[in-house]
Amino acid sequence: SKDSSLLHDNSGNSEYLALPADFGAILNYESSEWRDESFEIFSWTLFPDILIMDTKDYQIQSRFFKRLAFFVEKHGYTGKIHDYKELEGIHGWNAHDYRAEDLARFFITADKEEIALLPEEKILKNILLQNGVLEYGDRGIRPGAGGILSISRSSSSPQRHLLLSHEGYHGIFFSLDSFRNSCFTLWDNLESWQKEIWKEFLRWFGYNIEDEYLVVNELQAYLLQQPTEEADRYFRSHPAMSTSLRSSSTDKTPTFLSSSAFELNKVLYELTGMRAGNLLNLIPID
User: Fold this and answer.
1) pLDDT in tens, 233-269
2) Nearest by Cα to 169 from 230, 223, 214
3) Quick one: average pLDDT of 98-107?
4) Is 281 left (phi over 0), alpha (psi -120 to 50) or beta?
5) Cβ proximity of 13 and 123 under 8 Å
6) Measuring CA to CA, how many Å separate 145 from each of 96, 134, 174?
């Protein structure tokens, strides 16, 4: 396996300092120009405390983030750092997002419980420290600002665009209090049956639906990852939605999906000038 041998532990120099870039530049950046053959690390020019790691393939990405995914998000696994071999054969994610608080909690837990980090996790820790997502305090590691997102070159070009868009809305959620508060307000105003539909949707993926922060964060990202006019079609066709919802042509059941997307899109545009499904920030001229 070349996944570890291609990595260079340059924890003492600037090679781990993120390159400022917008999403268009990240998607089109030639991997031959990467400073490491296995990955490159960027900071989002619109939200500089959000890092983006692009990886050579899913295997390398998993060694950086799979244990984090289960520790932070996966139903039945959260709060515990599992042995990497124990997770073999269990799907993680094809893209990732983690806020500073959860990243700090992962590394604090590993240190406290004397759990050996993978070489890639050690490099990730150094990246986060060098770029201010994590900090050293009097009592050790503590959260800094922002978080980290990740996509992979194993994904096709359309997938990379969709996945980076989805993860980008998580980045905004982590960084912008006013947007995050609006997302929680939307969630709080949903009726109980609407919340259950959302939880059913997320349960299908394996998310820990007992974590309200995670539920709301995923709600807004799935609503906004595509243009608002496409939201209803996306959810109707998705296998994660119940058969009754996907086949429904009646009034209220499907309506709240598109109306929620339009509501959040309006908030997002008012706060940032960005829109659903378009974090490249290219706005067509009428």
Assistant:
1) 888 888 888 655 655 544 455 577 889 999 999 999 9
2) 223
3) 98
4) left
5) no
6) 17, 7, 9
